[in-house]
Amino acid sequence: MTTESPHRFLRACHRLPVDQTPVWLMRQAGRYLPEYMKIRQKAGDFLSLCKNPELATEVTLQPVCRFDLDAAILFSDILVVPEAMGMNLHFSVGEGPILEPVLRHPADLDRLRRVDPEDQLGYVMQAVDSIRNGLDDKIPLIGFSGSPWTLATYMVEGGSSKTFSYIKGMMFDQPQLLQQLLDKLSDVVADYLNAQIAHGVQAVQIFDTWGGVLGPREFGEFSLRSMQNIIQKLHRVGPKGHPVPVILFAKGCGSHLELMAASGCDVVGLDWTTDLGLARERVGGRVALQGNLDPAVLYASPERIRQEVRQLLHAYGPYPGHIFNLGHGMAQDMDPERVVDLVSAVREESRLLFGGQVGSNG
Question: Is residue 359 included in any domain, yes or no?
Fold first, then answer.
């Protein structure tokens, strides 16, 4: 098995030299693009769009057609997993996702079913097949899932939360019940990501959106442990024998960087609250790093965007293993033209600063 991929994104995941710093953006397909909104209207609603392989393919490819990106990411939603396990999911205007009935008692877990990804999530696999066809291997496709902790927060709270009172109450009062739920989710997520890999995604990212609401001990016990279980179960080699890197992104968890780097993942994604240069020193070359521009920079002028990009590239330095990304996702009111400015800045500044061989000193 070799890690010598021609794709700079995959090479960077494996900390190999690249000609310029690769770049993709979380939520690069979405509501800030007018072409996405047209497809969303055609689909009728967000969940219907996720479940239509043809339309999901189209919106996945839209940012790739518009911008000079180094990777595409599957268009879907993390909450298709609890829905596949038997929960009712709908998106309420102005309120976000709603999952029913909530899980708060031991008997509630009995309602959850083991998922066959080819069945309950077959539409995702069809989309992966279709997207790979559309990309024609010009750039890699990233698959993803939410982390067990993040999925559990929605399943126990019934949707988004500011206080996480129900899930944290369960964590402190009924830790065994929460671990049972997390174990069930770990199995489903591992199967789901393995199915995506079997259908051709070339990297996978685990999103731990709500890991940052946990204290240090609780993060290790109720979030990281489950993600490590998933990583251990993943098929890290794709259908054609190429290694499939795993990206771990836990928002608000920069203080746990060393633990995440030791989890077995290949890449740790960083939000904008962590210093990228110090993070590289802290992980000591064990993993690649992804990120971590504050998304709000995209509200600034092209000149300021370029300045921030330059500073971030300098902070990481001439070492292998950096994937440029935002510290979180694109927002719906962002101007697509600023993305053009951002990507151009990453291209030009990384070539200028590192002489066309980024990471050659690593």
Answer: no
Q: Quote the distance between the C-alpha of residue 247 and its chain's center.
A: 7
Catalytic residue chosen out of the listed positions 8, 11, 15, 27: 27
* Phi, psi of 22, rounded to the nearest 5 degrees: -70, 155
- Give kind and range of the element (H or E) at residue 88: strand 88-92
On whether the pTM is more than 0.85, the answer is: yes
Length of the chain: 362
How far is it, in rounded angstroms, from Cα 277 to Cα 289? 10
Q: Kindly name the residue from 32, 36, 154, 192 that is annotated as catalytic.
A: 154
Determine the number of helices (DSSP H) and then strands (DSSP E) in the chain.
16, 9
Residue 331 lies in a domain: yes
CA distance 345 to 348: 5
Q: Are 290 and 203 in contact (CB under 8 A)?
A: no
Q: Is residue 362 part of a domain?
A: no
Contact predicate 74/131, CB 8 Å: yes
- CATH code of the domain containing 95: 3.20.20.210
| Whether residue 66 lies in the annotated active site | no
- The domain total for the chain is 1
Q: Of the listed 11, 15, 70, 77, which one is catalytic?
A: 77
3-state SS assignment for residue 324: strand
Is 27 considered catalytic here? yes
Whether 154 is catalytic is yes
> Does any domain span residue 1?
no
β-strand 246-250 against 267-269: which pairing, if any? parallel
CA atoms within 13 A on the CB side of 76: 29
pLDDT per residue over 83-135, tens digit each? Answer: 999 999 998 776 689 999 999 999 999 999 999 999 999 999 999 999 999 99
Q: What is the pLDDT of residues 8-66, one digit of tens each?
A: 999 999 999 999 999 999 999 999 999 999 999 999 999 999 999 999 999 999 999 99
8, 15, 40, 132: the catalytic one is 40
Mark whether 40 is an active-site residue.
Answer: yes
Coil, strand, or helix at residue 103? coil
Q: Which domain holds residue 29?
A: 8-354
Q: Which of 19, 31, 108, 282 is catalytic?
A: 31
The CA-based dihedral angle spanning residues 250, 251, 257, 260, taken in that order and rounded to the nearest 10 degrees: 0
